[in-house]
Design goal:
Elements lengths: L5 E7 L2 E6 L2 H5 L10 H12 L8 H8 L10 E4 L3 E5 H20 L13 E4 L14 H26 L3 E4 L6 H9 L3 E4 L2 E4 L1 E4 L13 E4 L2 H8 L4 E4 L3 E7 L8 H15 L5 E5 L1 H5 L2 H9 L1 H4 L3 E3 L4 H9 L4 H13 L15 E6 L6 E3 L7 E3 L3 H10 L17 E3 L20 E3 L3 E7 L7 H16 L9 E5 L3 H9 L3 H6 L21 H9 L5 E4 L15 E4 L2 H10 L12 E2 L5 E2 L1 H4 L3 H11 L2 H8 L6 H5 L37 E9 L6 H4 L10 H8 L17 H7 L18 E4 L4 E4 H10 L4 E4 L12 H9 L1 E6 L4 H9 L3 E5 L15 E5 L10 E7 L5 E8 L4 H8 L3 H16 L4
Parallel strand pairs: 2-8, 4-5, 4-9, 5-6, 9-10, 12-13, 12-15, 13-14, 20-21, 20-22, 22-23, 26-29, 29-30, 30-31
Antiparallel strand pairs: 1-2, 3-11, 7-8, 16-17, 18-19, 24-25, 26-32, 27-28, 31-34, 32-33, 33-34
Helix pairs in contact: 2-3, 4-7, 8-10, 15-19, 15-21, 16-22, 25-26, 26-28, 28-29, 30-31
Length: 915
């Protein structure tokens, strides 16, 4: 029996509360709870509190309580989060799927209102705005007006969802980005229900949900499909994890930012290998970091591959809650609960049993950037110029651009650019307005990793102030923007008197939402874009975000570098990345004197002085008192009522998804896959951006052609992110990334493949349709880290609708592997050293996949039979990467949504009155 854990603790003098004391499990001999990592203690408390014998059993509690650092990971944990957060890009499809479940339930005679979230759900609309207008006093208003005109139908849908589901709260556009709002406002630290207190926990439909790990909240990103099940009361299942302890020692040197540290941590932990693991930071170095600095590091958890990047609750955490205007009684409760539960304080070395310990001396962290294609590709600031020069002529296979060194300094005149009149042509001296390799075309201070950190934003403002005072300006070919994660940023920059200086350099507020980092940087000037495409220039972006994958920021920018906000301003002033800012001048002042980075960089003392006067609780309380966004635009969106959403079959935005079209009460049994063809052969590091892009929809793409056929003009196509509730668009956008490389079509980029046996080169979508007409199942092959990046549900939904039955790769990223299973697509891993090259695959073969019939078990071995076009056959052993028992059930039902719907229908039939 599990011992009674309910106990009492003192919140404040004369005020007590109850809580589940997990130390009672150690007293009963169930495990060494006092040496267990903090994240697992929080999960263990959730198991004890939700123990019901069905979703959570005594065996689940005992298994986790007995966690050992180096034990085999064979048991599953059913985690029930306190709340769920959704951003609109993934959240709207979640709500649309729930609407489809309601419609399916109604067709089967079940009350559709049974499909109802059982936990609080916050929908933060933050991923729909684009930077159409920049460097203009009214840029924010104009961009939001365009956003509402483009998304009126989507916003009408979410207003319907708000009235249809009692536990859904909507935060309208114009307030900020989900993670910063979560950090500054939604997160509570501890919660109370019926007199019982417990930790605030969260899962979210964005891989950067771990940002709140920086303030002691356990939470992580899940796929949209998995979140839907969580909304309906289904636990989020995961394999009992390894926990890596990241020992931070020492202190950051002057001039080194939290961004530099986050990029260094990302490089280190990606090299160590923490995919699917929990990471906890401990030691004096972790203790020395402010809560906003910790949040920057935690936000990057998906970049280093971890499920969490956790910092325990301590005085820095409590100070952050106070600074952000939380109720003092709540802050007292957070402190009291954490102390009573043994969760207060950053651990010291030796206090916790970790699976593995990794060490980093903060004193060795240097000013850094990361790129040009992956966030883990960190480089010292002083070495950026050398890296760009090397990659310029390096082979594509080495991550380079394979350019002839002879054209390294080529310049293309821009006579049609609006800035040309201010820069009369003088090409012989290089003074005319022109663009060339290495030039920065986008410089963005963009949410959410860094705009939640006041020190970083104030440092950017102070650098801008000095630059303006020295007479520097940003070259006209650089598109600048500031998109804070909350309105509080604007408030404290204005209070500090720094916003006007940022605006003078073009960094005026363009939006409160996720912009450049997720592909909503907006259009470039046509003359610039034409020059880049026509002359195949290696043009660049610099941004303070977390993602810089190919074609993500802009389809025509080949090199993208992550960096701190003050460095974004500095590089924007320089106008290019092929410069050593530690030694070369950024520019020249009005007197012709060289201006160096050290001349502009603010001291820590100056930043701290401004921070004390500008970063005040009353600013947070004032800005979060009104979450109306741009209220007149939001209020103008019509309201819809009713339990079932009335889809419009003519809509190009919101359509009923097809996932329940052939729904039956009983699932069909799994069968071996026979006579399959390869849809694509991919290399390593295929991201969810490659699979399900968020870039702008090109008129000449299959998705663009479908929209044009339904009356959408080229100027209104938008980007894939805002069309995610239209399966017709999204399936045509699957594998349509402009930088995707399919080894079946050597020497090409984009969503193309070879159809067999015809040998025709077709778009991936057209080939899939032809295979579907012939009844041919499809496979996708890939290398290491398949599905890294954002938690995109359509990266799994799209392949499923294309007819992909299995993805066979060397390894998978955590969230995407789960998403594939949740859509009924088999994730299979090559064994030993097998892979595309080792097996000599070229895509012309046919394939049989055996081992799926009969009872399946987690990580079962399957056999792939490869038949060449000349008739020879060979075999390869695969591991089915369904790691826990519930994932086998999801596959057996064809995905998590059919599983949950069948379960709900069965429960409804049990409770229905007899006739």
């Amino acid at each position: 029996m599990i011992p009674c854990t309910l106990a009492e603790f003192e919140i404040a003098p004369g005020r007590t509360g109850k809580y589940h004391r997990i130390a009672a499990l150690e007293a009963a001999g169930l495990g060494r709870i006092s040496r267990m990592p903090h994240t697992l203690r929080v999960v263990l408390e959730s198991l004890v509190r939700n123990l019901d014998g069905t979703r959570v059993t005594e065996a689940h509690v005992r298994d986790l309580a007995a966690w050992r650092p180096a034990a085999p990971r064979t048991t599953e944990v059913p985690f029930i989060a306190v709340r769920i957060v959704l951003q609109d890009m993934i959240g709207f499809p979640c709500l649309n799927d729930l609407a489809a479940m309601r419609a399916a339930a109604a067709r089967l005679g079940v009350d559709p209102r049974r499909i109802e979230p059982s936990v609080p759900v916050d929908v933060v609309i933050d991923h729909s705005v684009e930077v159409d207008v920049h460097n203009a006093p009214d840029a924010l208003k104009r961009n939001m007006t365009l956003e509402f005109s483009r998304n009126a139908e989507r916003y009408q849908f979410v207003k319907w969802a708000r009235q249809a589901y009692s536990k859904v709260r909507v935060i309208p556009p114009g307030n900020g980005i989900i993670h910063q709002i979560n950090l500054e406002y939604l997160a509570r630290g501890v919660c109370e229900e019926s007199g019982v207190w417990f930790p605030d926990t969260v899962v979210g439909t964005d891989s950067h949900t771990p940002m709140v790990n920086g303030i002691g909240i356990v939470g992580w990103g899940v796929g949209g499909i998995e979140a839907e099940a969580g909304m309906l009361g289904q636990p989020v299942f995961f394999l009992t994890p390894d926990v890596v302890g990241a020992h931070l020692k020492g202190k950051l040197q002057a001039g080194v930012t939290a961004t530099d540290l986050a990029l260094t941590v990302t490089e280190l932990l990606r090299r160590v290998g923490v995919v699917g693991k929990f990471v906890e930071f401990f030691g004096d170095g972790a203790r020395s970091l402010s809560a906003p600095d910790r949040a920057v590091i935690a936000n990057m958890a998906p970049e280093y591959g971890a499920t969490t990047g956790y910092f325990a609750v301590d005085e820095q955490t409590l100070a952050y809650y106070r600074t952000t205007g939380r109720d003092p009684q709540l802050v007292s409760a957070i402190e009291a609960y954490s102390r009573a539960q043994g969760l207060l304080g950053i651990p010291s070395p030796g206090e916790i049993d970790y699976t593995q310990v990794v060490e980093l001396d903060l004193a060795r962290v240097a000013p850094s950037v990361a790129g040009p294609k992956r966030p883990q590709d960190r480089v010292d600031l002083r070495a950026l110029k050398a890296r760009f020069d090397r990659l310029f002529s390096a082979a594509v296979s080495e991550g380079g651009y394979a350019k002839d060194e002879a054209e390294r300094h080529k310049r293309v005149p821009l006579t049609d650019h609006p800035g040309a009149a201010r820069h009369p042509s003088s090409s012989e001296e290089g003074k005319g307005l022109s663009v060339g390799h290495g030039d920065i075309l986008i410089a963005a201070i963009t949410s959410c990793t860094n705009t939640s950190n006041p020190s970083l934003l104030l440092a950017a403002g102070l650098l801008a102030k000095r630059a303006v005072e020295r007479g520097l300006r940003v070259p006209p070919h650089v598109k600048t923007s500031l998109a804070p994660g909350s309105k509080v940023v604007t408030a404290y920059l204005r209070e500090a008197g720094l916003l006007p200086y940022l605006e003078r350099l073009g960094f005026g507020v363009v939006a409160y939402g996720c912009t450049t980092c997720m592909g909503a940087a907006g259009p470039l000037d046509p003359a610039l874009e034409e020059a880049v495409v026509t002359h195949d220039l290696i043009a660049c972006a610099v941004l303070s975000g977390n993602r810089n994958f190919e074609a993500r920021v802009h389809p025509h920018l080949r090199a993208n570098f992550l960096m701190s906000p003050p460095l974004v301003v500095a590089f924007a002033l320089a106008g290019r990345v092929d410069i050593d800012l530690t030694a070369e001048p950024i520019g020249r002042d009005g007197d012709g004197r060289a201006v160096y980075l050290e001349d502009l960089w603010p001291s820590e003392t100056k930043v701290e002085t401004v921070l004390r006067s500008a970063n005040r609780p009353d600013l947070f309380q004032r800005e979060y008192a009104d979450l109306g966004g741009m209220r007149e635009l939001w209020d103008a969106i019509p309201e819809r009522a009713g339990a079932i959403y009335p889809w419009d079959p003519r809509s190009s935005f919101i359509r009923e998804p097809p996932f329940f079209a052939r729904f039956a009460h009983t699932p069909e049994p799994l069968r071996d896959i026979l006579g399959a063809r390869a849809l694509a052969l991919f290399g390593d590091s295929i991201t969810t951006d490659h699979i399900s892009p968020v870039s702008r929809i090109r008129p000449d793409s299959p998705a663009g052609a479908w929209l044009a056929g339904h009356g959408v003009t080229p100027g209104d196509l938008g980007h894939y992110g805002v069309r995610r509730c239209n399966h017709e668009v999204m399936v045509r956008g699957t594998f349509a990334n402009a930088r995707l490389r399919n080894r079946m079509v050597a020497g090409t980029e984009g969503g193309v493949t070879v159809h067999h046996p015809s040998g025709e080169q077709l778009t991936i979508y057209d080939a899939a349709q032809r295979y579907r007409e012939s009844g041919v199942p499809l496979l996708v092959f890939a290398g290491e880290d398949y599905g890294m990046g954002s938690s995109r549900d359509w990266a799994a939904k799209g392949p499923q609708l294309l007819g992909v039955r299995a993805v066979i790769a060397r390894s998978f990223e955590r969230i995407h592997r789960t998403n594939l299973i949740c859509m009924g697509v088999l994730p299979c891993a090559f064994q030993e050293d097998d892979g595309i090259a080792a097996l000599g695959l070229d895509g012309s073969e046919t394939y049989d996949l055996f081992g799926l019939e009969g009872p399946l078990r987690p990580r079962q071995e399957l056999t792939l039979v490869i038949r060449s076009k000349v008739g020879s056959a060979r075999e390869a052993k695969l591991t089915l990467r369904a790691d826990i028992g519930i994932e086998i059930e999801y596959l057996r039902h064809g995905g998590i949504l059919p599983y949950v719907l069948r379960k709900m229908i069965a429960e409804a039939s049990k409770t229905a009155p007899s006739t």
